Amino acid sequence: MKKLIITEKANAARRISTILSDGKSSTKKIGGASVISFDANGDEYSVVSLRGHILELDYPKEYNDWSAGSPTELVYAPQVKTVKVKSILSNIKSLAAEAGEVIIATDYDREGELIGVETVEAAGVDMSKVKRAKFSALTKAEVENAFSNLELPDKHLSNAAEARQIIDLSWGAVLTRQISLASGQVGKNFLSVGRVQSPTLKLLVDKNEEVENFVPVPFWNVNAKFGLLAFQGDHIKNPFWEKKEAEAVESKISGVKTGKVTSFEISEKEEYRPPPFDTTQMQVEANKIGIPPTTAMKLAEELYISGYISYPRTENTEYPRSVNLRAVLEKLKESDFKAEAEEILAQEKILPSRGKRRTTDHPPIYPTAAAASGKMKGDKWNLYELIVRRFLATVAPAAKAEITECIIDVGGEEFKCEGYKQLFKGWKKYYGKYLKSKTSTVPRMEVGDEVDVRSMALEESETRPPYRYNQGSLIQEMDRLQLGTKSTRHDIISKLYSRNYIQGNRMIPTAGGVALTKSLEKYGGEITEPDMTSKLEEDMQKISDGERTLEQVVAESQDMLFKVSEKIASNEKAIGDEIRTAMRSHQYIGKCTSCGNELTIKRSKNGNFIGCDGYPDCANAFPLPRGSLNQPTDSVCKVCGLPELRVIRKGNPPLMQCIDPKCESNTQRTYLGKCPTCNKGTIRLMYSKAGRRFAGCSEWPDCTQTYPLRPRGVIGPTDKKCEYCSAPIIVFGKAEECINPDCPNKPKNKKKAAGGKKASKE
Question: Which among 117, 164, 220, 239 counts the fewest CB atoms within 10 Å?
Answer without folding.
Answer: 239
